[in-house]
Design goal:
The chain is an all-alpha fold. The chain contains 2 helices and no strands. The longest helix is centred in the middle third of the chain and has 34 residues. The model has no long low-confidence stretch (mean pLDDT about 75).
């Protein structure tokens, strides 16, 4: 399967269309034909191999987990460098003046 077309179900996107983003009728017709072809391709794939979608989903989940581990390992490797550049945080109030100190 090629990634010429990617569809995600349930994704909410806020619409902000300007005049330049509207398409002409011929372009809309060709896009509609492509979308119908994609639906037919997915139906044919489902009829030929019903487990293909599950394998793709499982592979996507495994890839996402692997990429998350890689990102966390990279951040852990960078943590000493980040901590070395920051001074330790200090408390803003002095002990014992919890109720007496006021900011004017």
């Amino acid at each position: 399967m090629t990634l010429d077309r990617v569809a995600q179900d349930g994704l909410k996107v806020r619409a902000s269309a300007g005049a330049a983003s509207f398409r002409r009728g011929t372009k809309l017709d060709s896009l509609l034909a492509e979308a119908r072809q994609q639906v037919e391709t997915l139906k044919a794939e489902l009829e030929a191999d019903p487990a293909a979608a599950n394998r793709r989903q499982r592979a996507a989940r495994e890839r996402a987990a692997r990429e998350r581990i890689e990102r966390l390992q990279m951040r852990l490797a960078q943590l000493p460098l980040v901590q070395a550049g920051k001074p330790p945080r200090r408390k803003k109030r002095t002990p014992g003046c919890r109720h007496r100190c006021r900011a004017a």
